[in-house]
Design a protein that fits this description.
single chain; about 120 residues; mainly alpha
Length: about 120
């Protein structure tokens, strides 16, 4: 009888480890997909099937759901901050001029830049 109990306990532990491993992979895959979807990344093409899997996983996984909510709150905070504190127009102009020069001219070394 004790052998059966030990054996059953071992099977349960092995099964729980397997479920945890599968969940870890599902959460890892979900985290990557979630990042692309919430960032509205144009380079990340997400199929309807992937969106369905993401939605299903988020509805059943408390940790990933929390991660999605944290990401949404962070994005909203950054948007509010950007509305309140617009970048300095002069700094933007300098960066645009630099980008324009770099796309036309070969980059200079620092010593050449300050001659």
């Amino acid at each position: 009888m004790r052998r059966r109990t030990d054996r059953a306990r071992g099977l349960v532990v092995a099964m729980m480890a397997r479920v945890a491993s599968l969940r870890w992979w599902a959460c890892r895959r979900t985290a990557r997909l979630l990042q692309a979807v919430l960032d509205d990344d144009p380079a990340a093409v997400v199929s309807l099937a992937e969106l369905d899997r993401l939605t299903a996983h988020l509805s059943g996984c408390r940790d990933c759901h929390r991660l999605a909510e944290d990401h949404r709150r962070l994005a909203a905070s950054l948007q509010r901050l950007a509305r309140r504190h617009a970048p300095d127009p002069a700094a933007v102009q300098r960066l645009r001029a630099l980008a324009s020069r770099l796309s036309v001219e070969p980059p200079k070394t620092i010593s050449e830049e300050y001659r």
